[in-house]
Amino acid sequence: MAFEEFDLAPGIREFLARSEAAYPLNATELSLAEQRACYDALCRSFAEDRPAGVSVEELSAPAGGRAVPLRLYRPAGVERPPVLLYCHGGGWVLGGLDSHDAVVAELVAGAGCAAVSVDYRLAPEHRWPAQIDDAWTALTWLADAAESLGLDGGRIAVAGDSAGGQLAAALALKARAAAAPRLVGQVLIYPALGLEFAEPQRAPAPDGPGLTHADMAAYHLQLFGATVPRDALAHPLLAGDLANLPPAVIVAAEYDPLRDDAAVYAERLAAAGVPVEHRCFAGLIHGCLRARHMSPAAGAMFAQLVAGTRRLFAAA
């Protein structure tokens, strides 16, 4: 499809064509096995080598008789680096440690931080709250293990894209409620924060080429089943009080139905006295981080994430 009605940034039409070759627009209508196979093919088609000097280590966090798989990324030449806990996107249904490997590795190289990527359990085999439970297990394990791993346990932040952005925001809320671990930042990349549940009367942002509201409804059905919870961990925009949350870096895309989730959350954080960097990038679509080497605008979004992450850690 050409998507002529959208004023897309240079390189994004080519990105869409390449994406559709692996992951069709009707992917949420496929069987779960087919959808996952298509998504894995999409991820492979955009796979890149990690930047020189970035090393990785496979780890796990104990979780009551099972383990949450983790991947630790270390930057080159940085002693006792701060660390980012990264939750991948994929509608809570797709993805894993490999799906966002290059993105996380490049973020580590650019920001000069370490990162721990979380392979949380996926829906529908594991319904909510399995995802936030695994992410929380990973975060608390990281806080305990950071110093023994040679990381700066006093400078931990959370990050995630799309569904992973929801998990990162929920982790910040959960850490505030528990008064530990202390987080120095949250990096939210076109996050799914539940605006349709927090403000059902609000006119939604239009569907975009990379994601539609019907897609989100399909993902929510897989995640929650027939009964959607009405709590702030599931939908961070339902949180009544956002004071004393960690500073935030939030990016969004113009042609993304989740665009306003980011804008409203940024507004509410700022109103609660939380330092926020928020930018909506013109001409971009959901999932455009994979286009960071194809589109100057997507590259600029990634550069802002890198710079914003650096600033969060420098200020801590």
Automatic annotation (TrEMBL):
Q: What lineage is this protein's organism placed in?
A: Bacteria, Pseudomonadati, Pseudomonadota, Alphaproteobacteria, Rhodospirillales
The record ties this protein, via Pfam families, to: Abhydrolase_3
Which residues are the active-site ones? S162
Give an example GO molecular function.
hydrolase activity
UniProt-recorded name of the protein: Acetyl esterase
Please report which protein family the annotation says this sequence is part of.
Belongs to the 'GDXG' lipolytic enzyme family.
Going by the UniProt record, its keywords in alphabetical order are: Hydrolase
Alpha/beta hydrolase fold-3 domain boundaries: 84-289
